[in-house]
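Sequence in, structure out.
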Amino acid sequence: MCAGVTGRRELLAVAVLVVGATLFSFMLLEVGVRMLHLVPDRFWEPDPLVGARLTPGSSGWWTQEDREFVVPIQINSQGRRDVERDLTKRPGTFRILVVGDSFVEALQVPLESAFPRVLEHDFQTDGHPNVEVLGAGVSGFGTASELLFFQEEGRRYQPDVVLLAFYPGNDVKNNSPTLEDRFKPIYGEDGSLQRVEGYVRAERGGWSAWLPRSEAYVYARQMLLLRYPRVSDFLVRYGLVQPDVVRRAPERDGIPVDYGVYAASETAEWQDAWQRTDRLLAALRQQVGASGARFAIVVLSTRDQVYPASWEQIQAATARMREQQWDLDAPQRRIAAWCDAHDVPCLLLGPVFREVAGHNQEPLHYPREGHWTAAGHRLAAATIKDFLEQRQLVPTRQQEVKHEAN
């Protein structure tokens, strides 16, 4: 009898030790993941009009699986990744509003290295102390979201120039109600833009509701699911993880949708996307003009334009890609032609980046993640500054002095 009781106590003690050691190890792992910032924080919230917005006052760290960058992030009280600004500009201030997507948001570099901040610094140290450059970028924005943002909020900053940062890699897709899979633009029967529908994950209950709060769990899950696609497919098939956790890039005929913008021959779906983009650009131009500001477009570079080896790897990975004809410069030519037809100043960054990359060992785009490095942001700021001055979109120093005297 005593021996049996003693044995059960010993088993219970061993079980308690095993559970305690497991919990302690998990706690150490959790602390380590958080201290090393292995899991990116979230800075966005759904928005009923534009699809999503940056959460005002949010802060944290941004990184990705390959650890190409680990960046502290602070979103200002107005929901932009920028320093704090007064909504009403001070007398004598010349304000440039840069509207765009994740390239303007620039979570991949410290805030002071983002091209809107570099551009403002370059102007102010080059005899233009009253120039302000406001960054208004949100990941996932296309021209539809940017138009709605300007109508609802952007005009309230009283900009003198609105600079649209157009990213040819996905902005056209973003404007399509059929090609876009995450932030779908909603159009009325007459073709007018109504809103952009945001992506909201389904609510979960039980154990799956609290597990995502563990960064150690999230890190282990993302490494497993991203590195081993077959494992992730198995887990989804048997209901062990939710399908929305494993997001696959949508395809058309075996080709990722994003690359369709470079196809030498447009499908009807892409023709419709371009027509909608043209109308959205015209509407934004009209809205900016009605606000009293001048409108200009800068067409951003893509990694695949700048580094041919990147595009070769993409083609090599997909058999259907190798069967098609592609033109990586077609989107920028299309935007440049639209600008010429509508008398809109336009800057193409792709050729500039390609030329510099051919002589510079410092990468301008992150090799795996694809966004600009700090060097890419510096090059963009310097090129944009020259463009704005050459097209007389910013006042000369003599004009500023005369304005201050009056």
